[in-house]
């Protein structure tokens, strides 16, 4: 099988950012108003008063400091607490497509390629903004790429699963260069009125280009931040501990439209308890299958959901507390951007390694799903 490399990466970051203090101020104002509206029920014991949030609580619970969003005003309005985005005509690019094109342009430039050089486009995201036509086909069309395109959804593992699919396409000869884009508009499926999760998500879009090593070398590229993929390993195990029940069948049950389960819901402690050993075990087993010791691992670009979770996974894999450079995190700036998170970490912290150094990209989330990509720096 031909050696396959990640020859370029790109990132789109929304221009609007929300700090923990701003988010907490809006949330606490909502809490005050709701408690006032329901004062009698609270006094009689029919209903519990809502509790306020705090920036300190957010940092302690997650390590998150801020997040970028596609619409700040709607999220911070206590009467709305959700993004407000104007509906676009069918002739306009969709928001996800627009984000993907921006991230893709950076990846193409870094790889030294043009859109016409791409013959497969994969859009992987935790939520796709419409059922059809596929956003990936729209991206392919507006980008000017050839070949074929399709969407896939494996929640927070959508990017790594898409990388595995891209490798399969190149290995099978159905594509030569694949663009993987991950437009995540997480603020649209987050319940900003839920104290336990209102701070978790942010919006972003990442892009990666995969091609054979020979194809990359033939262009004599100047870039040195190129990684050969040594292997992928995927795993899934069904769980309801992270769930979103929004879908086209909701209209058949109008009495439940708008209920909280149509947004992101999770049992955070159960997720932590289940996912940490599942991910740690998969990483260690995968490295062993590839003949790589954990001590050879120079960097881990892990899914960016929770700082404590990443630190514990890293410790279990390495057998010691990781250095910050070994398991970089972007939670302070970006929060959890679902499938884009591990790729943002890779994009921003792929420099500094030496030729031959081994590292990994790893995602994990709803499903449960885990995707592991072991890589080696080329030059």
Please provide a written account of the structure:
It is a single chain. The chain has 379 residues and is of the alpha+beta class. It has a domain at 227-377: Thiolase/Chalcone synthase (Peroxisomal Thiolase, Chain A, domain 1, 3-Layer(aba) Sandwich). Helices cover 35% and strands 22% of the residues. The chain is built from 12 helices and 13 strands. A 9-stranded mixed beta sheet has the order 5-4-6-7-1-8-13-12-11, sandwiched between helices. The chain is globular, with a radius of gyration of 21 Å. The two termini are 21 Å apart.
Give a brief description:
The chain is an alpha+beta fold and 379 residues long. It has helices at residues 20-37, 39-44, 55-62, 72-76, 95-111, 135-143, 158-172, 213-218, 268-289, 307-318, 331-334, 340-348; strands at 4-12, 16-19, 66-69, 120-124, 148-152, 177-185, 203-212, 227-236, 242-243, 265-266, 297-302, 358-365, 369-377.
């Amino acid at each position: 099988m031909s050696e396959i490399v990640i020859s370029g990466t790109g990132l789109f970051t929304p221009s609007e950012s929300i700090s923990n203090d701003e988010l907490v101020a809006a949330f606490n104002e909502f809490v005050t108003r709701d408690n006032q509206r329901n004062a009698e029920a609270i006094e009689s014991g029919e209903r519990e008063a809502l509790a306020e949030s705090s920036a300190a609580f957010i940092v302690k619970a997650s390590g998150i400091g801020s997040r970028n969003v596609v619409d700040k005003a709607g999220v911070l309005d206590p009467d709305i607490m959700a993004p407000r985005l104007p509906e676009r005509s069918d002739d306009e690019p969709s928001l996800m497509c627009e984000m993907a094109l921006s991230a893709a342009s950076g990846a193409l430039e870094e790889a030294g390629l043009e859109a016409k050089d791409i013959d497969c486009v994969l859009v992987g995201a935790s939520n796709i903004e419409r059922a059809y036509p596929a956003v990936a086909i729209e991206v392919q069309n507006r980008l000017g790429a050839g070949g074929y395109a399709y969407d896939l959804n494996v929640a927070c593992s959508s990017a790594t699963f898409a990388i595995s699919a891209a490798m399969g396409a190149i290995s099978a000869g159905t594509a030569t260069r694949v663009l993987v884009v991950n437009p995540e508009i997480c603020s649209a499926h987050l319940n900003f009125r839920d104290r336990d999760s209102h701070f978790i998500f942010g919006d972003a879009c990442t892009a990666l280009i995969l091609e054979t090593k020979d194809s990359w070398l033939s262009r004599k590229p100047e870039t040195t931040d190129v990684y050969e993929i040594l292997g992928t390993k995927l795993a899934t195990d069904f769980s309801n501990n992270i769930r979103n029940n929004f879908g086209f069948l909701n209209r058949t049950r109008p009495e439940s439209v708008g209920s909280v389960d149509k947004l992101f819901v999770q049992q955070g402690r159960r997720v932590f308890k289940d996912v940490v050993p599942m991910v740690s075990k998969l990483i260690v087993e995968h490295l062993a299958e590839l003949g790589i010791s954990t001590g050879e691992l120079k960097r881990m670009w892990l899914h960016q959901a929770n700082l404590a979770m990443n630190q514990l996974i890293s410790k279990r894999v390495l057998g010691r507390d990781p250095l910050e450079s070994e398991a970089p995190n972007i939670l302070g700036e970006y929060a959890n951007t679902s499938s884009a998170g591990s790729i943002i970490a890779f994009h921003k912290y792929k420099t500094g390694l030496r030729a031959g150094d081994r590292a990994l990209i790893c995602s994990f989330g709803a499903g449960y799903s885990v995707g592991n990509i072991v890589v080696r720096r080329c030059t």
